[in-house]
Structure formats: structure tokens, C-alpha cells
Amino acid sequence: MRNYTKASKFLSLVLRHKPEKIGIQLDRRGWAKVPEILMGVNLTMEDLEHIVETDEKQRYSFNDDKTLIRANQGHSIPIDLELEAVEPPETLYHGTIGQFLGSIKKEGLQRRSRQFVHLSKDVETALAVGRRRGKPVVLQIASGRMFEDGYEFFLSENGVWLTKEAPSSYIKFPGESAGKKE
Ligand code: HQG
């Protein structure tokens, strides 16, 4: 079977960050026209359907009649995913690496180039996210307490928890006992 990894990575780039790479625009909800994607990414409809269905993180969605496609999260360009704010679980996790910890302690988790800070519902997922960059470190986020304090949370179509920022006072760092909070 064809190796779709490269095509899928390029699709991510186009749908999350740089639609101009193939000369297209996303609408304000992040949707691209499927025929334009097929042409620009050089895929058949069957390839594209295969990628959307089998993607291990379910990164993409079609609209009902499969004329449009978008990324479920991860954007750096400003789009409105039409997500409703929902109550998060008491605790969420963030996978990162040791070298960022000093700065995270100071500034909290920042969304950096993306639209949101990404949080995982379990430690395993957070470990996998951190591992993309090196030896993973998992931070525990007091999402329940953040929610009580008025921070908004969103759950993407593919199960990633999103929020605008997570100040350090809500983060439990490895080796730290609970407590120490404002
Ligand atoms: C770090 C993947 C220093 C943060 C994953 C992270 C995810 C700070 C990096 C999705 C910081 C940003 C997102 C601060 C945050 N000081 N470093 N104050 N605040 N950071 O890629 O969460 O495979 O934008 O820890 O599965 O790593 O692309 O975010 O290391 O869901 O579909 O700055 O990307 O999904 O990196 O990953 P990213 P992320 P895909």
C-alpha cells in the first residue's frame, strides 16, 4: 500500500499553518475545498479518504457531503473551530521536555505559535506528545481548579483539550508535591 505519512504531514501543514503553500485559502472555520486539496496535495479522493479514516490521531474531518475538509486542531492561523467551552476533568496532562521547564515555571504554559495550549486526558498521551521533542516530562494541570477560576476549556473533535494558557500556579511539576498554589 502507498505510504501516506508524507502526504499526511503535508496535509497538516496546509490545513493548519500554510494553505498558501498550495495557493488556497481556508474559510474562517478552517475548511478547505476538497477538489483544491486533491489538486494541491496531489492525492486521489480515495487516498484522502484513507488518510482521514486511518489517521492515528484523527487529525482531519470532512463535512457531511465530503466537499470540505479541515484539521480538527493544531492551527497556527486564526480560525474559528466553533468549539463550545466545556467543563474539563479535574486533572489534565501536558507532555513537554526538561529544557522548557524553567521557562514554563516562570511564564506558565503558553500557546506559542498555535491557537491554544494542548492538554492530554491521560499520561500516556502526554508522554507521546513530549517524546516528539526528546525525553518526555509530564506536567499535571489542575484543570478543574482553572475552570472554577474562569478559564475556558474546549475539547477538539479528536479528543485534545485546548485552553488559552495555563499559569504556573495550576501546574504540578515532576518531583513537586501538590500544594504550593496561590
Ligand atoms: C512548550 C501534536 C517554554 C510546550 C501533539 C511545547 C499535540 C513552553 C512547545 C499538538 C512554554 C509548543 C501540540 C513556556 C509551552 N516556555 N516552553 N512558557 N509553554 N511550551 O507543538 O503541546 O502530531 O505547539 O511544552 O500531539 O507540543 O501535530 O505544542 O513543547 O496535540 O497532530 O512549547 O501537536 O499533534 O509546541 O503539541 P507545540 P505541543 P500533531
Percent strand: 15-25%
Helix vs. strand class: alpha+beta
Q: Could you estimate the helical fraction of the residues in percent?
A: 25-40%
Biggest sheet, spatial arrangement of strands: 1-3-2
Strand segment tally: 9
- Spell the H/E element sequence: HEHHEEEHEHEHEEE
Task: Provide the low-confidence segments as ranges.
Answer: none
Between the first and last Cα atoms, what is the distance in angstroms?
55 Å
Bound molecules: ligand HQG
Q: What summary fits the major beta sheet?
A: 3 strands, antiparallel
What is the average per-residue confidence, as pLDDT, rounded to a whole number?
A: 94
**What's the helix count?**
6
Radius of gyration, rounded? 18 Å
Shape field: elongated
Tags for this model:
three-stranded antiparallel sheet; 182 residues; 29% helix; alpha+beta; 9 strands; binds ligand HQG; single chain
Structure description:
This protein is an alpha+beta fold and 182 residues long. The protein is 29% helix and 17% strand. The strands form three sheets. Strands 1-3-2 form a three-stranded antiparallel beta sheet. β7 and β8 (161-163) form a beta hairpin. The longest helix is centred in the first third of the chain and has 13 residues, at 5-17. It is elongated, with a radius of gyration of 18 Å. The relative contact order is 0.15. The mean pLDDT is 94. Bound molecules: ligand HQG. Ligand HQG is lined by residues 57, 59, 74, 96, 100, 103-104, 107, 109-110, 112-114, 118, 129, 133, 160.
